[in-house]
Amino acid sequence: LAQLHTALGQKGIRRVIFVRHANAVRPDLPLPDEDRAMLGGPDAYATPHEWKRDDQKRPLTEKGKEQAAAARSWWLGYPMRLEEKRTALVASGARRATETLQIMTERDTCVPILMCPSLHPAGIAPTMEKMFSTMGYGPLQKFLEPPEGAGAITEYAELVVAELANVVEGLGAGEDTLAVFGHAVFLNAVAAYLVGAVPGQAPLPEAAWISLSSGQVEVLLTADLGEAEGLLLEPSTGFSHMHMEAE
């Protein structure tokens, strides 16, 4: 945790945005270029790696592509106003995450995407995976309620934070925004851990990159991250839930 806070500060990163992928093809529908669907959940495969390999193949639906295109309104609007050349793009490796990234950033040719495989939790966070398979989507607060919740979230988030720290340390000069494309609930877990909001986790370092008020922590923990929505962290303003305005 301290390594990531230090890296964000040293590299001049002024905001981190965690973006959930847009709507994706269901696991029971045929995989791209194959005549079969996924075999089922993780238990249907011999190893977590084999399940992860299939799950990462799932593309966006047409609805998902429309969601990602519509999300450009908050991606480019206030308060983001992103400048592509100053934004480092990170993805989990899942096709649905990288396709969301490409559409939202309008980069459909050669896209420099940094990989953070642990953003896809298969095989590395069994307790949290099991909780997600039984509890489904929802705000992180729901996952903190079971006795094992905080420990499971910390176990997973520690792995991702360590990997993200290495990614940030490798960034070049001139980038001031880190955009991380991944998966619902698990992105919430990383964001909460980064700001020290998970009960019993390691404390924030003395020179923390960001620190939220108790009110903002509550908003973050109760945020239900929808498809093609984001969790924005900025030391100057705190936390914002980025999404399309309701019509």
Account of the 3D structure:
With 247 residues, the protein is α/β, with parallel strands linked by helices. 38% of the residues lie in helices and 12% in strands. The protein has helices at 2-10, 48-55, 62-70, 72-76, 95-105, 126-135, 140-144, 149-169, 186-194, 214-221, and strands at residues 15-20, 87-91, 114-115, 177-182, 230-234, 238-242. Helix 3 (62-70) crosses helix 5 and helix 8 packs across helix 9 (186-194). It starts with a helix and ends in a 5-residue tail after the last strand.
Net shape: globular
Distance between the termini: 39 Å
Strand content: 5-15%
Structural class: alpha/beta
- Fraction of residues in helix: 25-40%
Order of helices and strands: HEHHHEHEHHHEHHEE
Rg over CA atoms, rounded to whole Å, is 17 Å
Mean pLDDT: 88
Number of helices: 10
Largest sheet, spatial ordering of strands: 3-2-4-1-5-6
Biggest sheet record: 6 strands, mixed
Q: How many strand elements?
A: 6
Low-confidence residue ranges = none
In short:
The chain is of the alpha/beta class and 247 residues long. It contains ten helices and six strands, in the order αβαααβαβαααβααββ. The chain has a six-stranded mixed β-sheet.
Topology:
Layout: H1 2-10, E1 15-20, H2 48-55, H3 62-70, H4 72-76, E2 87-91, H5 95-105, E3 114-115, H6 126-135, H7 140-144, H8 149-169, E4 177-182, H9 186-194, H10 214-221, E5 230-234, E6 238-242
Parallel strand pairs: 1-4, 2-3, 2-4
Antiparallel strand pairs: 1-5, 5-6
Task: Considering the chains and any ligands shown, give keywords for the structure.
single chain; 247 residues; alpha/beta; 6-stranded mixed beta sheet
